[in-house]
Amino acid sequence: MNSYSRNPKFLFLLAAFAVPAAGLSAQQQDPYDLGITVTGVLPDDLSGLAEGPEIEGVISARNGDRLQVTTADGTKTIVTVGPVTEIRSSGGFLGLDRNKLDTASLINGLPVAIRTVQWGPGLAASRVDLKSRDLRFASMIHSGTEQGFAEQTAATEALRGRVANIDQYNIKGTTNVNFDVGKANLTPAAEANLCAAAAQAQATDNALLLVVGYTDSTGSQELNQELSERRAARVVNHLQQNCGWEPWRMLTPTGMAEADPLADNETAYGKAQNRRVAVNILVSKSVDGI
What we know:
Elements: E1 11-13, E2 51-63, E3 66-70, E4 76-80, E5 86-90, E6 99-101, E7 111-119, E8 122-131, H1 132-142, H2 146-151, H3 153-158, E9 163-165, E10 169-178, H4 188-202, E11 208-213, H5 221-241, E12 254-255, H6 268-274, E13 276-284, H7 285-288
Parallel strand pairs: 5-8, 11-12
Antiparallel strand pairs: 1-9, 2-3, 2-7, 3-4, 5-6, 7-8, 10-13, 11-13
């Protein structure tokens, strides 16, 4: 049993609803045709409208100003957005401040939390909250080619959903790269090892990469969490920019600070082993047949 399966907190996010947002002609079937017709645009002020439900899920399709949001239990809800909708991103993984965005940022595959109001027979979004890191990776997936997604159809279907547990995957290989104390820069040897890992994954059918950053026990939990995330982000950038790994085959990276040490943190040697990023080659058990 590996260390991941022993850690119940080891969860990661996968934006797997990459539905092309092409326009629909009058002759095409509209996936949003729910027997409800809404005309016009949202008013400039939604304060006088009755509150609707709060919806948390993933944007699974979009047509113009209408979003389809799929919740964890599979429920699909149509919500209208417009200039009056307040869209906010919070920092987290990228360390960004809270920023206001426009509706163009609401793309397929993006996890969101939406406050709604009743508007006519449907719902309008008064506020949408999202995380900057989720937007980054949803954008990467959204920019993937249709051919690429077709090649990964089986894996995508098997992995669909906002949250998945590591136990749903087979680990086909792990490459660890190490770091100096308090640093997140890669050595030439580490860069070469990462590209070798990417080549191994390319040769593995339906492979995805999961990147996890770690630290030794030196420093506070807050500093170590930030450092582990920076290390993971640096590895992801190198894999994508220098090793040719496609962004849509990358699961959301995470930082685990000093959790799951490989060696004893009481020795200098052990600490050096624990200052690492693990690049895991994963294949869904549903696809792998094991």
